[in-house]
Batch of 3 targets.
Target 1
Amino acid sequence: MESSIKLVDGQYEIGLLWNSDNVRLPDSYPMAFRRLVSFEKSLKKKPHLLEWQNNHMRTLLEKGYARIASEQELSIKWPRVWYTPTFIVENPNKLPIKPRCVCDVAAKVDGVSLNTFLLKGPDNLVPLHAGLFKFRESKIAVNADVKEMFHQIKIKKEDQQCQRILWRDDDISRKLLVYIMQVMMFGPRCSPTCAQFVKNHHANLFKEECPEAVDGLTKRTNVDDYFDSHNTVEEAISVTRDAIRIYKSMHFDLVSIQSNSFELLSQMPETQVKTKLVSIDPNECEGYIAKVLGIFWQPSSDCFLYRLAEDDDLKEMVLSSNAITKRRILREIMRVFDPLGLISIYIIRGRIILQEVWREGFDWDEPISSELQTKWLTFINELKKIERLRIPRRYISLNPDDCKVSLITFVDASEKAFAAVAYFRFECNEMVEVSQVMAKAKVAPVKQLTIPRLELQAAVLGVRLVSTIKQSHTIKIDEELFLSDSTTVLSWIHSTTFKFPTFVASRVGEILHSSSPRQWYHVRSNDNVADDGTKWFDECMGDQLTRWFVGPDFLKKEFSEWPIKPYTQQEQESAEIVSVHIRPELPSFDVYNSLSARFKAKWSSSVRVIAFLLRFKDVIKKIPFEKQVFITPTEYTRAENWLFRKIQCEAFPEDLLSLQKNGRVFSRSSILSLSPFLDEEGTIRMRSRAQKAN
């Protein structure tokens, strides 16, 4: 990128990021022509879209974004040529609905597309959560868009030949025209990285002149979305003006400026302020709701909101039970955008239902059982209440720099899910404020784990959450605490022996790499906020005053009054003794893994060891058995079946669960053709023609 970027007539020019210097592209003209014919047929059914597309193509020419290739240019044998088909998309979630022309650079010819030959480039984009964190830090929030950002960056001439588009007006008898895009298209995998590189490259030229604005452009801009927050109106106005000037100098326009400060908006050019906010009248704009990085934000109340888009699929699911399928459930869950996990306490319920649907073995478009339908409809009806939520954008009403800041993270798990939720605690002049920062909730794995191991997964999730928060905030964090109600997990974290199974050892290692044992405290289950995110509870949705959003009451008290306690060595020893007493589940699955490593491919040796262990188990439980020095055939068969079951648990966990619950495997099972069934001991076996023989 550094070798190809240059300034031409006040605009930047850059080349595409090819994965090789000797790229040979197949002939894409036939594919593009077929797609054009298909596109024209679909447009004939929608005259308004046909008119829009014709106007769009003319606009590309008028603005200089594209040119029509001459006969002479088309006759030249260019080293690389690619024709890109186009189509129109409409987003029903955006009102009014606006069509958008999309260049389908993923269209394939002979198994390859244009993107196959392009590099994505270095990941220099600002993560969504990092941008939202900065947007929440200070008093005055500012958000804006860069107008047609990609189209303001030129592509070098030799690469423009890979941006050819076929088009003709509604008169199909007219000769085909070849449009060549002279600017960056939206679609090539390298476009976001190249656009971000150009912006950062130019912004850094102003680093000494206006460092605050440059910092905002390089660290708080996600492609064409600009977002920032400041402590004072004066600072916000100054930095925003500098940002507009820097963008203007590279031929970019910063438009659709939005803010919770009407004083700031009044100081901005009207052409660059969001149309609905131009009046600069707080009373007229009270109900206005903006979108910042996909999240709804109401500037007048300075709160985040959530909206559920009503569509035909959702209405059909409510009216008809046959319309509730796994595909539609997944679609509705994924439509709720929550990058910070603030409402993960609610979304996890839908994900738990989806996992139950998956476990039952239903196909994607197969109606689910009546029991699950009832659960899903209850969830959907309750989920609509999230539209009542009003979550404050700003963490604290004061300046965080004047406060002692603590980051407290709660972790917990149940048999269905595990979760972590983090809060900032600001202490300033005997005044304490608590604000939810980020949360994460995940369903438990399909392969069943013990509760202590799920609690350990929650602890790992908690340290990862804290790491993300620390890296993406400019707020100085003075203290970090982790609260868990699992004494087993705390004993693992505080252990000095480290004699753990691989599963436990690797996760404890990650926890200790990112935190200290002294930061981990025990909290009672009733006081653990993360517990709310691991199960279906009866608390009403849509109440932003619950402890999940505002934190538990004890966080606002003195630390000495908190219902937590550090984990002591005495408790650790006690926990280790207890763990010894509850382990005589002989043999365990870990035994099978160790035998596999010990005897490798020697099946008979593994079976004999298991047989002796099962005999020892019978002795402990005082079960009568045939007293022999050597392993009897009955004992050998019993041990073999035990190993079969353990291997099947690992290889076919979903099939095993489906057989146990429904008596059949799901329709896409890899062993469906074998007609599997469970015998009396729970071993998966296959039916054969020998069973039907006389």
Note: The first helix runs from residue 29 to 44.
Target 2
Amino acid sequence: MNITKCIFLTILMCAYYLAQIKCDVTEIPEQDCTDLAKDVPLLVFSTLGGGLTAVDPITSEIRWNIEDDPAIRVPTHSESTVSPYLPDPRDGSLYQLGDMGSLKKLPYTIPQLVASAPCRSSDGILYSGKKKDTWFLIDPKTGKREKVVGFGADSKDSIGWATSRAVYLGRTQYTVLMYDSRTKDKNAKPWNVTFFDYSSHSMAPEVSNEYEFLHFSGSSSGLTVTLDRESGTFLWQKDFSSPVVAVFLLGPDGLLSVPFSTVSDGALKSIIEYARDGQQNSIKLFESLYVGEHVHGLYALPTLIDENTKTISSEPMMKLLDGPTANDNPNLVYLNTLMETTNDKNKNVVVLGHYQMPKTKEEFKLSIAPPKTASIDNANVHELIATNMKNENKAFEVNINRKGSIGSIIPPPKESIQSNPTVPGLELQSPKEFISNVYRKSQAWLNDQESKILKLLLIILFGLVIAMFWYMKFVMHEIRSQSQSGSQTSVSGGKKNGVYDELIDLGDGVSQVGKITFNSLEVLGKGCEGTFVFKGRFEERNVAVKRLLPECFTLADREVTLLRESDAHENVVRYFCTERDRQFRYIAVELCSATVQDFTEGKVSSEIKNSITMIDVLQQATNGVLHLHSLKIVHRDIKPQNILLSFPDANRKIRVMISDFGLCKKLNLGKNSFSRRSGITGTEGWIAPEMLKGQRTVWKFCQ
């Protein structure tokens, strides 16, 4: 009985599974291809002429097509005028058209200008922006679309066709109005550029690297080809009748941006030819900028070209010295040469074609007005400029019908390789680069100022500040050098500071220290603070040796410094040497016969008294003081005791000399007097009365 039940249950289970299999087999033919591929997201191509086209990525079937506004719109004032700005329909970048068709890339895009408006650039262009957002509801199966919300949209109570698979798409219209504030043309009109962009999610880098397709689109036509990323084999091609500016994947959450490349028409034909024939080949593609024209104006589209594509250079051809022009590339055409060959002298001419990638206009800066308006982040701007500069001169390699990566970057030409790598976020500048950068920024800021008088005043003020800075630096250097020379010890024989000689007693009051020998029993004079002057010898000549205590070392150093500077004059006492021992400092100067005080009191010999008159004494003493003043040295202690008379020479001539420089002081550069903070200096009884009275200005009249 149990065996019978088991057999019966086994038969029932087999019948059930056979029924399930039959049901599945009979249902398969009734399914539609669309239902089989309903989980595969559609590829949506956005074109320059306007409109969205949905394509099945597997079958290449066009599901639907929606007409829309063009990606860019550049109106012209008249048929004879050309807009000086060329927009990029892919991301809204702007290229400025200069004289003779030269191109420069602005470091800001149209969306960034709208976000910063109202603003003014460093070249005097005023920018005004407007942004308009619109939401659409679209059926991914049929392509039916209806405006839901947005400025200027009709209000809808309900949308009857909306289903659970309907997707919301957002689109933004950016309009920038530009006006040249420096134009001299009273009838000048502003220029405006409109850029349309669909809101989409960015594909993560790791997802982008695993994307299974590779899309190429023509720069001037709508021809688009899709290759397999891994093998490079041809999958399908479509002609959308207008250049493709964006490719998306349409999913439940909206649009997801897909990487694609815009190539020249010639390079695209080569890629299709090699891919269809199954030939294994590698095509090197180089960056360029295609300037084209469509119904709504001119546009500039970054494009990859092959080696056989004619390229236009807006830079003038480099001419060799006494030789032919340097043009080794037969496919490179120079714009100035091309313009010279045409008979049209109108500067308002644009040559359509592939240009070398223009450089970013680095000096272009924006000033936001009013200041509280939201501005562009400087870090993002610098990153944008750096990115634009780093992308120049790159080459790409496309492997067709060969396993491996597609679109890999190969090394750029040798002239574009930079040998000095930089650490991200860290810029090391040399002093020359720093000064150049400051000068460039200052010049750009001055160009922003419209008033010529203000510019002139700022330049003068800047020059005065620099002159004052260098003057103060020079004065401080002079003060520091004087201070150092006054605090250092000057020794003979090239001895360094801190080196001293032992005092040697030679007997009978004669002592020797270094090169100086003196007799302590022959005192020529006494001074303050225990200063004595002895008769001595230095290198076989008679000298006066001045011995000073440590309390006077600072004054002694200053005296020696000033003597060295001024003793070349015959009316200044001559300095010879300085020595030191453990206790004293010794200064050797020229030995004299008497002082002026001795001369006036008659305490000199008849020989000296008959060799010079009082008028000669005053005249020579005045010459000595005049020499000191010419060196910016003020003696501050002129008295009869400090004016010395020399011994008669072979011609019986006597020289009058200024001595004792202990209170001397040198004027700083640019000064003509001292302050009174240091007090009144000099010897009591010989200080000028106007100094004691505190008079600031003294007038003396002499007959």
Note: The mean pLDDT is 75.
Target 3
Amino acid sequence: MAMETMYDRQCSEKEPKQELDNNKFGESEIDCKEWQVEDVIKWAKDKHMHSEVLQCLAVERIDGSDLLELSENDIRDFRYRLQYQLTMSDMKKLWVAVRTLQHNQPSSPSSLHTPCTCMYMNPPVSTGGSPIHHPNNIDTCSCQPPRTIFGSSGSCYSDTCSPPPLATLSGGAEGENLSPPMSIDGRATNIPPELFKTAISLGYSFLVTWITSFVMVIVHERVPDMKRYPPLPDIFLDNVPHIPWAFHMCEITGTLLFIIWCCVCIFHKYRLVLLRRFFALAGTVFLLRCVTMLITSLSVPGTHLQCNQNDYAVDDADLTIPEALQLRISRAYTIWSGLGMSIQGVRTCGDYMFSGHTVALTLLNFFITEYTPRNLYFLHTLTWLLNMFGIFFILAAHEHYSIDVFVAFYITSRLFLYYHTLANNQALMSHDSNRTRIWFPMFSYFESSIDGIVPNEFESVGELFDTIFLFVLNLKDTCMLTARRNWLSDLQHYLIRQNAPFLLKAPEVPKLRIKQPYLQPQNVEASMSNTPTQRYNFSKKSSHDVLTVSSLMPECDIVQQSTLAKCAQINKKQL
């Protein structure tokens, strides 16, 4: 006889008084904190759960304490992250049983004086990450003697108040059987790669960099004369001496931040989402910079700068408009290919409001700190130091006014925070979706498939190589299938053109269709002579390269099938 488990002993102790001790959940209180894995599996069997659920509990080694801390997110992860073959019914039954067990835990004496920590003072979060608004009892709760349930992160959710009904995994709103919100941590449940959207974002950023380079050529032609317009008064520049090598140090710090960001993108599990957001934000900020530096031309901030508007001016009267435009585009290409960096030999003037170097430093810093784990304090401190020192080097080199740097940091940081606030809280975006589409069309398109915070999950080197290998295989298969489809389509069109008179005279397809074996070419020719309302319909068969020849008659449709090689041998006279 098998050894009696703790679960069996508890059930045998509770059985005599079960009918008298049942609570509102229909079960007696059972303390499962000390359960072993075998007890949990026995409990699941008594609940008549599917074998896949039992296997999941056994493989993951779920004991009694783990069972008390399970949340709806954890149960969904069994299917969507751990890839267990659980049906929706399995997940619902498991969550209802777990929640009932959590509610039925015996209250300890110390918990009777626990203060109310109602989670429902704020609007609850639905599956998509957006709050569920209820007309009544959103900001108030009626406290009762508390009963504590263990949450997914070890925290306790209080069952001491009467919050509004929640839509839970168990299927509808419930007034008594309450549970924590489905997305307590706000993480996204659906993050598709969407390579096409990332390509659009990259194209948008690429176009903006070209526009920025071209505008920098224009503003250099309009830079004020240094003799007539001296540098403007500036508190920082007037009190800090010029450091010649500072601007190079700024670009070196930016290069270090860029290398760190590349490493994050390479190993991050959702790298395409990160790149899509980075390109979209960078393109938007630099497009705004094009407007600000074009509408107002500030004087040169330092006397050490050799800026002359005739450097880039098109002063040759013999040049036509296309030739002048071509000359400006070639100069813009020089700026674009050098990334606007002085260490690449690029020197421009007039592009002061606001600082593009500060934008790049700040954007890289914010993206690195956002998409790396919160416990990497050294990395986050390093990126912030690189950002601040880079800004200091810009000012110490007297390449920008202080207002240029301040406005650049403010606009970049605010735009980053606004974008991610909307992306991480779908309620803000869905509350007035029409207005969001009008004011933020790119954001609405790029973030339409993401319903929460993108988790910071990284892949190992082996997983990364597996991902690249699968991508290459899928790309090869797609190219081969596309080429095969195009070849068959061209052949089909060629054969159809050879039989155009018959296709033009073909009647509608009859309802009755009778399939017959393949007819030899001479039979086809004889059938054509007897049936003037006949046509050939060539449809491709991708698996066997088969073409179907359809002969339409007044009462039936006879389909003759032959291989591609035999059809290609039919000459024009037989057709």
Note: The chain is about 50% helix and 5% strand.
